[in-house]
Amino acid sequence: MSSLSAPTAVPARRRGAARRLAAATLVSGLVAAGALVGAGPATAEDAAVRGQGGAVATMDGLETYGTAVIHGEDGDQEVPAGLFEMSVEGGGTLQTYCVDLYNPTQREAKYRETSWSGTSLGANKDAGRIRWILQNSYPQVNDLAALARRAGIGGGLTEQDAAAGTQVAIWRWSDGADVAALDPQAERLADYLEKSARSLPEPRASLTLDPPAVSGQPGGLLGPVTVHTNAQGVTLTPPVDAMASGVRIVGKDGKDVTAARDGSQIFFEVPADAAAGSAELTVQASTTVPVGRAFAAESRSQTQILAGSSESTVSATASATWAETGAIPALSSRENCAENGVDITAANSGDQPFTFELMGVEHTIPAGASRTVTVPLQEDQAYDFTIEGPDGFAKRFSGVLDCHTQGDTTSDDRTQLMTEPSPATVGGSTTDVNLAETGGTDITPLIGGTAIGLVVIGGAALVLLRDRRPGTGD
User: pLDDT tens for residues 110-125?
Assistant: First the structure.
């Protein structure tokens, strides 16, 4: 463990950051299997990773960085601090900063764009200040001489100084950390950004579909599904085997549509003689993802916040389920950090009640009703469950709940989470921090792999939140 005398002093931050145990100690339970069936079905894997839409990216590594110092009760600890890069599926590059100081960054972890409410930012009253820092510092401000003048820095800034100073300022608001930049110029920038930051609203998603699931009887239009995007336009990919099943994607006028824009309403047109089944629509666009969007990992890896985006591919999916009679369910989910759980929204457009079992508890959705059930989870807990319905209907949901920053836990607790060098490698060297070039340790499969497909089922009660009409958004 490295230690050094503190650089320019900064006020201690004591904002009660949440303490958490290592992820591996919280994950236990039962693997839940599942599959999707119907006309043009999605695979079980597709259903498991489907989120709210947007960009999907893989962590490349920490590319532009300096050194920061965490001041703790056990002494000072050095960490690398700076700008990450991620590669977007389908094309594009993202630049991000970390908003979860004491967690590791998994090598080649997959990240998905998400709302603040699904991360620790949702419960952080200062999250808007972080967005201000992103908008007013590197790399959004790439004129480093101008940035230095604005911050009152006479000696100028390097890219490494700018990245380190920006990350340090973010950590002070995201983690309540007593942290300073080692380089004096970077520290002056961090102080300027922290003191100047004011609250800005959460940015819009790059692409979402509302609602992501609809249902109804064949012989009419199922929907609408409304497109929300910052792109100039989106392309629509019809369901698999659409021609064979006769399912069409149409607008309000019943005409086929292959493209749409922000605010467009689209529908699934299902033939009157179609057998009970389901289909899925994919919507895709190329756009710059808005600065300040959160990115959460599918495994236990540091939550990131977007600092910059090239033109990148974004996508979202919507599903439709139909039947002539009986219950006709439409299911969707989202992580809800305010309630420390996962919201499952179940709509029933049929003429009979829809009854399903979830983690040992039975729920009934009356005909024509919609309800949201919250599955309470522990922090860092993985979940994987399947909801089954009539006519072979099955929908799988999985992920890892990551709603809090870890806070300044003991060194022993942090060691349980270390898998490779990253800003979470407290006490590590600032060399060899490129995650794309370093390998995981022997415990990487335990933290990254074991979490997927497990769910704690310790008799926790499910909370019924609210009733809704089918087809309404979250």
Answer: 999 999 999 999 989 9
**H or E segment to which residue 150 belongs:** helix 144-150
Helix (H) or strand (E) holding 159: helix 159-174
Which DSSP symbol is given to 391?
G
How high is the pLDDT of residue 465?
36
- Give me the pLDDT at residue 407, please: 61
Which amino acid makes up residue 237? T
Q: Is the peptide bond before 139 cis (omega within 30 degrees of 0)?
A: yes
| Tokens read off for 339 | 């309630």
Distance, in Å, from the CA atom of 70 to the CA atom of 467, rounded to the nearest integer, reads: 47
Neighbours of 355 (CB within 10 A): 14
Instruction: Give backbone dihedrals phi and psi of 160, rounded to 5 degrees, phi first.
Output: -65, -40
The 8-class DSSP code of residue 1 comes to -
Q: What average pLDDT does range 273-300 have in this prediction?
A: 94
Cα distances (angstroms) measured from residue 167 to each of 130, 296, 459 = 10, 18, 41
pLDDT score at 27: 23
The answer for residues whose C-beta is within 8 angstroms of residue 359's C-beta and 6 or more apart is 375, 385, 455, 457, 460, 462
Strand partners, 331: 346
Question: Residue written as tokens 């999707």?
Answer: 36
Average model confidence (pLDDT) across the chain:
79
Handedness of CA 55, 383, 449, 425 (dihedral sign): positive
Kindly give the interhelix angle for 184-196 and 127-135, rounded to the nearest 10 degrees: 120
Q: Which of 149-153, 269-273, 449-453 has the lowest mean pLDDT?
A: 449-453
Write the CB contacts of 403 (distance below 8 Å, at least 6 apart in sequence).
Answer: 118, 119, 120, 122, 123, 335, 337, 340, 379
Q: What are the start-end ranges of the E strands in 53-120?
A: 56-72, 75-88, 93-98, 110-114
Q: What is the pTM of this model?
A: 0.77
Encoded amino acid at 426, one letter: V
Write the CB contacts of 209 (distance below 8 Å, at least 6 apart in sequence). 53, 225, 226, 227, 228, 283, 316, 317, 318
Q: What is the pLDDT of residue 3?
A: 27
